């Protein structure tokens, strides 16, 4: 084995620097073909302290799947299983084929649900044991790059959304993400955000009883704030893995092709958030029943079936402490 040194190219990207640990993304050339290992040293004479195995991420002739969803790391002993199931099931209807779930800290009921989805080959769980107090927002920038490069050889697109967010096509004849990206060669699609406020839900409303039972806020809320955030502020995206190099939370930093700034009449990021404001004035809120109209009936049926499967899975595979899966 012999060593080849290569300087770091001018382009690099780093996370916020106000923490003990930061995420750095370096790019360097390889003058003698595909390397086996990589390391970062200050001088060419310095002995590397760690060697990282280089994984090839060439664009394949055909992909295993079209859409893979990358979820920011779970943290703070996350335990909201209803939100997790709603998020997975609605995204499956939208076109997701696999979910990469990064787990820093989750409750037993969440691990039980994730294990069930993992056994169905829908979820891949990535353990993420980083010091959350010493890095910006659970290392989300590093997590996004990790998810991108894990999926470059396997998935044509990755989708970046949080657990309370959904990228919703709004045209009646466009039901899935596949429909939306059809006939486009763009490297990424950035979607504007709007908030549906959970505190505006009226428990006495005539909403679907099963939607209430399973806490499906995407069906319980049909009015959003009038504000639609500009691209780059709270926006999320679908990115073509072969054309993007670096990702940020709300947009794509670098792409070898056009980036589409999607208009709100085509598709939007629906964001279901609880702001703890009981005095919200909804007089000027905008009614949008796209999710209810296009996915509501199927979503309720799928969620009901999934919760039955979760209970059966819990009885066979999960610890007694996970009995309360909700």
Automatic annotation (TrEMBL):
It comes from the Eukaryota. One of its GO terms (cellular component) is membrane. It is an enzyme of class 2 (transferase). Its EC number is 2.4.1.-. Keywords: Glycosyltransferase, Membrane, Transferase, Transmembrane, Transmembrane helix. Pfam families: Glyco_transf_92. The keyword Transmembrane applies. It is a single-pass membrane protein. Its main location: membrane. One of its GO terms (molecular function) is glycosyltransferase activity. Belongs to the glycosyltransferase 92 family. This is Glycosyltransferase family 92 protein. It comes from Dreissena polymorpha (Zebra mussel).
């Amino acid at each position: 084995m012999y060593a080849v040194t290569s300087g770091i190219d001018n382009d690099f990207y780093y996370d916020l620097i106000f923490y003990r640990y930061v995420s750095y993304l370096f790019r360097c050339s390889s003058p003698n073909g595909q390397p086996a290992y990589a390391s970062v040293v200050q001088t060419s004479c310095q002995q590397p302290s760690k060697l990282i195995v280089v994984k090839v991420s060439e664009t394949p002739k055909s992909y295993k799947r079209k859409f893979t969803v990358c979820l920011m790391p779970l943290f703070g002993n996350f335990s909201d299983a209803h939100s997790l199931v709603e998020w997975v099931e609605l995204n499956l209807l939208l076109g997701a084929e696999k979910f990469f779930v990064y787990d820093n800290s989750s409750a037993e009921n969440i691990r039980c649900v994730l294990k069930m989805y993992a056994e169905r080959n829908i979820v891949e769980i990535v353990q993420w044991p980083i010091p959350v107090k010493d890095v910006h927002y659970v290392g989300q920038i590093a997590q996004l790059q990790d998810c991108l490069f894990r999926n470059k050889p396997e998935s044509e697109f990755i989708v970046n959304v949080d657990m309370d967010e959904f990228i919703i096509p709004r045209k009646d004849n466009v039901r899935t993400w596949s429909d939306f990206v059809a006939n486009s060669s763009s490297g990424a699609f950035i979607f504007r955000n709007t908030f549906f406020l959970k505190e505006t839900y009226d428990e006495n409303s005539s909403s679907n009883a099963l939607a209430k039972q399973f806490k499906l806020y995407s069906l319980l809320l049909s009015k959003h704030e009038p504000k639609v955030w500009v691209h780059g502020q709270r926006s999320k995206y679908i990115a073509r893995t072969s054309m993007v190099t670096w990702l940020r939370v709300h947009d794509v930093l670098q792409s070898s092709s056009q980036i589409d700034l999607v208009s709100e009449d085509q598709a939007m990021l629906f964001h279901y958030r609880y702001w703890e404001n009981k005095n919200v004035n909804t007089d000027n809120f905008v009614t949008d029943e796209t999710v209810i109209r296009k996915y509501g009936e199927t979503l309720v049926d799928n969620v009901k079936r999934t919760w039955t499967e979760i209970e059966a899975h819990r009885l066979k595979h999960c610890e007694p402490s996970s009995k309360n899966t909700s």
